[in-house]
Amino acid sequence: MWTEDELVEYEQLKFQREDAMKAMESGVPLIAIGRELIIDPDWVEKVQNGREDEIETKLDLRAQERLVVPTPLWQAIVSRPDWFPVAE
After folding, report:
1. What pLDDT, on the 0 to 100 scale, is given for residue 59?
2. Overall domain count for the chain
């Protein structure tokens, strides 16, 4: 069982390089970036290479095929309007 201190809710963090590094240095065993990886599959590479300004932070609703998101997951995402930030 995780303690409250070990849980990190990705919705409360701005996942920029500095934030991720601070979280890792704090001893937190897990950083949840699943939503961010669905929005921008190159998130990790961009952070590692100092290209945070290129990170997509909103989901493009026309990008299912490019993002390679299976249809059942895509339907779950788009049917819950507050789950993912959406590009206008």
Report:
1. 95
2. 1
Q: Is residue 51's pLDDT more than 60?
A: yes
Quick check: is 34 in a domain?
A: yes
Cβ atoms of 36 and 83 closer than 8 Å: no
In 10 A of CB 43, how many CB atoms?
20
Residue 86 belongs to a domain: no
As to burial, measured by CB atoms within 10 angstroms (0-12 exposed, 13-18 middle, 19+ buried), residue 29 is exposed
List the one residue out of 6, 88, 85 whose CA is nearest residue 38.
85
- For 51, residues 6+ apart whose C-beta sits below 8 A from its C-beta are 45
